[in-house]
Amino acid sequence: MPIITLPYDDLEKLTGTDKDTIIKRVPMIGADIERIEDESIDIEFFPDRPDLYSVEGVSRALRGFLDIETGFREYEVKPYTVEITKDENIDSVRPVFGCAIVRGVKFTSSAIKTLMDLQESLHWGLGRDRKKVSIGVHDLSKVQPPFRYIAADPEFSFIPLDFTEPMTMREILEKHPKGTRFAHILDGFDMYPLILDANDNVLSFPPIINGTLTMVTEDTTDLLVDVTGLSNEVYTALNIVTTALAERGGEIEYVKVVNADGTESIPLDLSPRLKVLDREEIDGLIGMELPADEIINQLGRMGFGAKELEDGRIEVQIPRYRADILDNSDIIEDIAVGYGFDKIPAVFPMNATVGKSHMLSDISTDMREIMTGLGYLQVMPFTLTSDRVHFDWMCREKTDDVTYVMHPISEDQTMVRTTILPNLIEILSMNQHRELPQRIFEAGDVVINGKNGLHLAAVSISPQANFTEVRELVDALMRERLVEYEVVESEDPAFMEGRRADILVNGKKIGVMGEVFPQVIVNFGLGQPVVGFEIDLLD
């Protein structure tokens, strides 16, 4: 689940209350406080609430929950003054496109960082690592409308973000860190997406990298937000980003999109979605009867608009940035959150049972205690992954012991993992904006030859990471487990030759450790040495 860093200065200013109140009440809206620092707080939110991936979104939610500003939040959107045309060839590459302008934003360094963090969190939460959704934010003063969204020749060149010399789009995919990280998204295409201004200046090469020309700075006031992708989540991401900027005082403005066939559209829609709730449905799910005015009040505290209809049902206005509201039960859950779960009467179950922890749970608990004691942070990545991440990026040969998903919902979740290390290294790649060293672990499930297994894996990234570090870690782990082990030279291609070792217990291989192979580090878009180990806890 994403962990969002929220500076106190921004939180207090945008929420309208003090940090002590915020720290006390924020867990009540469905969040876990990860850590409290002197200048900021780190909070973990559920993946289904991408509108809370920024200080602006959290402040908006808290203003309602704390009765500072309740009800449906309306955003005024001004008529368009800018248009963008879509090339007919782009529909076969990256067809779904949304954009808007936000003017009059006052940026600070922390506000820019918050915006960048929001982008990356949405890329992960909504975008399936940019495959389905990618977002660009540009300094509008540096470019000249009208704009064009086209499918361009891979030999087209421009200066990408964080570089000073022009590169062709093909070179960016081969040499730029972001290019190598996300090049697989454009595999098989002869033309690449590109957003240009009237003078052929590059705004963005989605979903890879922006041009350096439109980089947002503290002097930026007017922004163009572009979102491209393969699904309607593009419009959800656009709504979240534009309304977050509006919370900082920005004025939203439509952008007209002219399609290749001459039709026109306005991709931004902030009008509320409407749903109607039956009282029986509300009372049945919550487990108690609430008066209509109480239901309407709690909906207002959770950011909805609501009114009672003549037949007693409740009509609800749902904000467009609430991607988690799929059916009535999601709204009713928010009514219960607003009312307070502690106020709902407890009822004894009809049946009483006595339980005990499972052996695997006991093993996992012991491993978590040992690893946290050794200074590592626990993570919980998905158990579904892909051949690309699991084998190709790890420089490992594909094996026959893999269980594949019959009907995967995306190319990133086609198989059940057989090892944990690829997931951990992928998490490191998503957290490059965090300070080093980073040390994480997981004790979790794997599936090998159709059978469940339990593995423990850990990775450490820092400029000083080396084989001695991981050997000392495994020594400490095995000492705490009271297990004697030995090591022999390994041939695992995911690790460097001469700096890798298989872990043996009673002559049987149970795992591997070492310094991660440089090409693996490059494949995941990392720039620092990585060490790690993985062992089978059931052998």
Describe this structure in words.
Tetramer of two alpha and two beta subunits. It is found in: Cytoplasm. Its main location: cytoplasm. The strands form six sheets. Strands 4, 5, 6, 7, 10, 11, 12, 13, 14 and 15 form a ten-stranded mixed β-sheet that branches. The protein is of the alpha+beta class. The chain is globular and about 75 Å long.
| Average predicted confidence as pLDDT | 92
Extended strand count: 28
The termini sit apart by 30 Å
As a whole number of angstroms, the C-alpha radius of gyration is: 25 Å
Low-confidence stretches: none
What general form does the structure show?
globular
Q: Tally the helices: what do you get?
A: 15
What are the key terms here?
539 residues; alpha+beta; 10-stranded mixed sheet; 7-stranded mixed sheet; 29% strand; globular
Task: Furnish the topology, listing elements before pairings.
Elements: E1 3-7, H1 8-15, H2 19-25, E2 31-36, E3 40-45, H3 55-65, E4 77-86, E5 96-103, H4 109-125, E6 133-139, E7 147-152, E8 157-158, E9 167-168, H5 169-175, H6 177-182, E10 192-196, E11 202-205, E12 209-210, E13 223-229, H7 233-247, E14 251-258, E15 264-265, E16 273-277, H8 279-286, H9 292-301, E17 305-308, E18 314-318, H10 328-339, H11 359-373, E19 377-378, E20 384-385, H12 387-392, E21 403-404, E22 415-416, H13 421-430, E23 438-448, E24 451-461, H14 467-481, E25 486-489, E26 495-505, E27 508-516, H15 518-523, E28 530-536
Parallel strand pairs: 4-7, 4-14, 19-23
Antiparallel strand pairs: 1-3, 2-3, 5-13, 5-14, 6-13, 7-10, 8-9, 10-11, 11-12, 14-15, 16-18, 17-18, 20-22, 21-22, 23-24, 24-28, 25-26, 26-27, 27-28
